[in-house]
Amino acid sequence: MEGLEQIVAQNLTDLRKAQKWTQAELAEKLNYSDKSVSKWERGDALPDLKVLKQMADLFGVTLDYFVTENASAEREKFEAPKSELGFRIGVELLAVCVVWLVAVSGFIFGSTYANLRDAWLALIWAVPASAFVLSYFNIRWKFRVCSIVFQSILCWTLLAAVFLQLLHFHFNLWQVFLIGVPSQAAIILWAQIRRSRH
């Protein structure tokens, strides 16, 4: 029987090649360096349990796949149930629906019953609120690439909502969008810092 490092190395390599990903592409998805992936695939080191779980989710297999000899020959035995990913997407979409339900209710109540001419702003603020909810869940569930995208969307839609709110009060402060430049840089740099720590 091969050593555990070699079994994990072979199974990881098979999974990565089946996806047609380079080591660098896999490393980016895991927020690790390509040197770490290279070590794992050579059998020089073992990824920790947290990373193995992250890879199992990424490849759609169970943790057993990584530690079973010749697992690729019986891949279907180790395929993870698709329900977990479906559940997570469902929760995210439900949370976004709640945000929009509140926003639309506020708009209807504000424009119909309270005669507020700026009730439409409730719909504008629902966009960054939705991005915040999606960003929160993607960070929580460690979908790092998606969380960076939603953080960026949150940054720019929040600035747009602030701009439109100020514009409604006759303050044309387009300069508020300049805040987005360092904010976007900070989002990208923070992602790189987290990646380089692994």
Biggest sheet character: none
User: What's the mean pLDDT score?
Assistant: 86
The overall number of domains is 2
Number of strands: 0
Q: Helical proportion?
A: over 70%
Assess the beta-strand content as a share of residues.
under 5%
TL;DR of this structure?
The chain has 198 residues and is mostly helical. It has 9 helices and no strands.
Written overview of the protein:
The chain has 198 residues and is mainly α. The protein folds into 2 domains: 4-78, 434 Repressor (Amino-terminal Domain); 83-196. The protein is 71% helix and 0% strand. The protein has helices spanning 4-18, 23-30, 34-42, 49-59, 75-78, 83-113, 121-140, 144-168, 180-196. The mean pLDDT is 86.
Annotation keywords:
198 residues, 2 domains, mainly alpha, 434 Repressor (Amino-terminal Domain), 9 helices, elongated, 71% helix, single chain
Task: Please specify the SSE layout and strand pairing.
Elements: H1 4-18, H2 23-30, H3 34-42, H4 49-59, H5 75-78, H6 83-113, H7 121-140, H8 144-168, H9 180-196
Helix pairs in contact: 2-3, 6-7, 7-8, 8-9
